[in-house]
Amino acid sequence: MPITRRAVLSAAASSLILPVARSRAQARPMVRIGVINDMSGPYRDQTGPTGVACARQAVQEFNTNSAFDIEVLSADHLNKPDVAVGIARKWFDQDGVDILLDCAASSAALAMASLCKEKNKVMIATSTATSDITGKACTPNSLHWVYDTYMVAKSTGTATVKAGGDKWYFVYPNYAFGESLHRDTSRFVREAGGTVTGAEAYPFPETTDFSSALIKARASGANVLGFCGSGIDLINVVKQASEFGLTKTMPVAAMIAYTNDVRSIGLQTAQGMKLTECYYWDLNDRTRGFNNRITDKVTLWPNMVQAGNYSAAMHYLKTVKDMGVAAAKADGAATVARMKTMPTDDDVFGAGRIREDGRKIHTAYLFEVKKPSESKQEWDVYKPIGSTPAEEAFRPLSERACPLIKA
């Protein structure tokens, strides 16, 4: 039979396609996690490189029995929503990223949540404070891990009022995180029988001198200074309040504080301060085990939000394995829905679950900062003085704050 030109071309095309198809069949599927947070600004120590290391730790442990490859990308969004969305959009459109993790600044996280819904990707906010993530801004594609303003406000605000700190003056940063924390804490202070004598918003991140706000706080007649900032702002305000002698009559209630903040302030200045975290390295055998595995990879030991990256990444990867990589990559909303049906359990938070509104729930712990004489080593900074059960610590579903929750 004569060989036609069409037959030659068809044979040539087949010889090119088959090796490519064979190569693709042999390739392992890839899942990409994008850790986006503050790597250079005021929240670097609270999120930053240690947060990335904790996500990588989850990947390392999960990869021992994984049928797919996992890559972790990281970026600094400078606490700016437009920068965050620009990075995330490039990651989704060009780099094949499947999930945003960490997220930090509330304004940036809220903007990225909208983008994830648009692109049908997954977002897990671990270091974001605003309770709006599972409130009016909730989406089928986003989850809120670790903590939020509602939880820390309820835990720290209520307990402080019950201990006699019933007159509050608030100082808070003028963006979504600070505003929601001020709102939620004021509510719980009043519900516990306390009063709010005044409040001052400060420009973020420009402010380093809090003397004006501290003078107004002293003149207000309050007996508690409720500080709703975090990071370097918290460090500055506590040190300045101590220098002014304010903490002798008006102790600081640190609404958002972490172990690395306390170390930066120093136990001599921070001793007696009350705060809430959901994780502490010395809580139990499981937290100590996790901390032992990560400490040689970080300069700063993980706080609750950094350790939360390990917890969130591990649960996401378990879900991908359960669904199958192709299905998980194809539909972020379906992946989030599956994550909600699976119980959570890891060495950071222990057993827990994800509610219908996307809120990950677990026990919240109230800590008091130790005196220097009580500390055995540099990271031994807390003593637990109370706890709130998981089902009570976060905003109840009955409030129907999330539009996804139907009556």
Distance between the termini: 74 Å
The count of DSSP E runs of length 2 or more, i.e. the number of strands, is 15
Give the C-alpha Rg: 24 Å
State the shape: globular
Average per-residue pLDDT, rounded, comes to: 91
CATH architectural arrangement of the largest domain: 3-Layer(aba) Sandwich
CATH superfamily of the largest domain: Response regulator
The helix/strand series, from N terminus to C terminus, equals: HEHEHEHEEHEHEHEHEHHEHHHHEEEEEH
- Give the number of domains: 2
Q: Compute the number of helices.
A: 15
Task: Give me the secondary-structure category.
Answer: alpha/beta
For the sheet with most strands, the description reads: 5 strands, parallel
Q: Report strand order across the widest sheet.
A: 2-1-3-4-5
Commentary on this structure:
The protein is an alpha/beta fold. It has two domains: 30-147 and 283-362, Response regulator (Rossmann fold, 3-Layer(aba) Sandwich); 150-277 and 364-393, Rossmann fold (3-Layer(aba) Sandwich), CATH 3.40.50. The protein contains 15 helices and 15 strands. It has helices at residues 5-26, 48-62, 81-94, 106-119, 149-162, 176-191, 211-219, 232-243, 259-265, 267-270, 285-294, 304-323, 325-330, 332-341, 390-393; strands at residues 30-37, 69-76, 99-102, 122-125, 142-144, 167-173, 195-202, 224-227, 252-254, 274-277, 344-346, 350-354, 360-361, 364-369, 382-388. Helix 2 packs parallel to helix 12 (304-323).
